[in-house]
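hey so i finally got around to running the thing on that chain from the lab meeting. sorry it took forever, my laptop kept dying and i had to restart like 3 times. anyway pasting the input first so we r on the same page abt which one it is
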Amino acid sequence: MQRMLETPSGASNSKLLAALCYLRHGNLNVARQLIDDVIVNDPHLIRARMLRVEWLSRSWAPLEELTRAINDVLRIQPGIFEARNWLQKIRQMQAAAATSASPPIPAWAPSAMVMPGMPA
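ok and heres what got predicted. didnt touch it at all, straight out
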């Protein structure tokens, strides 16, 4: 991460790498702070917004909030396949929940689709 600081956009990339590590190791508060900081300082950096979606998922955010975050990703870069896939999965989950009297849907994790083999 120190070497990244010497490159253009290095601070943002370094923070995103740190946020990813914190996110994957369960330190959600630190990850959120880093992700928010990158979004404030580099609002068009799509990776930060995609990490925000993952953070929301791991934080058990409501599906409506996840949907808004995914739409935010698509607003900036409409062609992202993963985001469109996430949105489709959320809509399927919402439709299933609306027609079922079963227990609530568990948290949805986009990282399972983006990085197969990584623990959710």
